[in-house]
Amino acid sequence: MMKFKLGEFVRFVNERREGFITRIIDENTIAVTDDDGFEIPVLASQVTRVHGKTADYDLNTEQNVPVKPAGQFISNGIFLAVADDKRIGSVVHFHLLNLSSWQLLFSLNTEKMNQFNGEIAGTLQPNSSIQIFTASLNELDLWPKFHLQILLHSSGRHEMQKPLQFSEKFKAKDFSGTKKHTDLLKQPAWLFQIDANEPVIDAQKLKESFHKPAADKLDIQNPGKEVDLHIEKLRDDFQFLSSTEILEIQLNHFRKCLDAAIVHKLQSIIFIHGTGNGTLRNEMHKIISKHPQVKTFMDAYKEKFGYGATEIILK
Questions:
Q1: Exposure winner among 2, 157, 164, 168, fewest CB in 10 A?
Q2: How many CB atoms lie within 10 A of CB 314?
Q3: 218-222 long-range contacts, Cβ below 8 Å, gap at least 24?
Q4: 244 in the same domain as 173
């Protein structure tokens, strides 16, 4: 049987379909994620590599020529970068980025059901990167736990460095931040620093924060006359979220804006929740029907919103 690796780009033998390998199911079966973002189990014998399109997964091929500035040693800057595939939006590639002056000896293992699988191991030169894993965003809940171990080496005199270990079971919230552009990858990516220093707590600033006037601590923004609760308006990472997480985020924002409207003594406020399956609307109505500061509520401007918005009249 032809051996395939995660991240390789393959084409189905008997169908007009192609995609990335995002899971090795067993020694005979793989999972391929296609252009539509669907992960399809298939026998390895039923696909073939697409040369020229296969993701760079060669241990001996870093994506950049190592550059070590003369006379300058950079001791930090080792990241795990998660970047979208430029062709299939639902696929992400994991890269190890080395912006430091260390040469890295690394090993990646994944864990599922207390069983470990060795994925990739190798060396990485300073100021270079290498792809180490590929996965489908649609299968985020099924992602394994990642265990990345790294030894740091440099020729000549230097202080002995402790090995680095990064262990993470990723969740949707880990991707709630903004992507940052990476010169090595030439595209934006979510960055997780592996060699980050432990934060130093400033005892004096911590003490001062407890004695700040209440006015300095509390700054509630006026929510305005209308608040849109559609998840794409609230979070950039909504495609990673489950329906339960989306509802919780929407309700939390609803409560926050309702409280802000009361603080600012607004006469009324409109929440745009959409129609959908009606779950968000029903949960909102449960809350406001028992709220002591709510005078009444009704569907807002049916000609504009249909039944997709609720207007709340405050006392």
A1: 157
A2: 19
A3: 220/259, 220/260, 220/263, 220/264, 221/260, 222/260, 222/264, 222/266
A4: no
Is residue 63 included in any domain, yes or no? no
CB of 82 within 8 A of CB of 190?
yes
Higher confidence at residue 207 or residue 24? Answer: 24
Q: What is the DSSP letter of 175?
A: G
- Separation of first and last alpha carbons in the chain: 73
Query: What is the predicted pLDDT for the residue at 62?
Result: 42
Of 237, 234, 270, 239, nearest in space to 249 by CA: 234
Q: Write down the pTM of the prediction.
A: 0.52
Q: How many structural domains comprise the chain?
A: 3
pLDDT of res. 73? 82
- Say whether 63 sits in a helix, a strand or coil: coil
Which pLDDT band holds residue 94 (cuts at 50, 70, 90)?
very high
Rounded Cα–Cα distance for residues 105 and 125 (Å): 9
Query: How far is C-alpha 107 from the geometric centre of its chain's CA atoms?
Result: 22
Token pair for 56 = 């760079």
Report pLDDT digits (tens) over 179-231.
888 888 989 999 999 987 654 545 565 556 555 555 444 567 888 899 999 98
Same domain for 185 and 100? yes
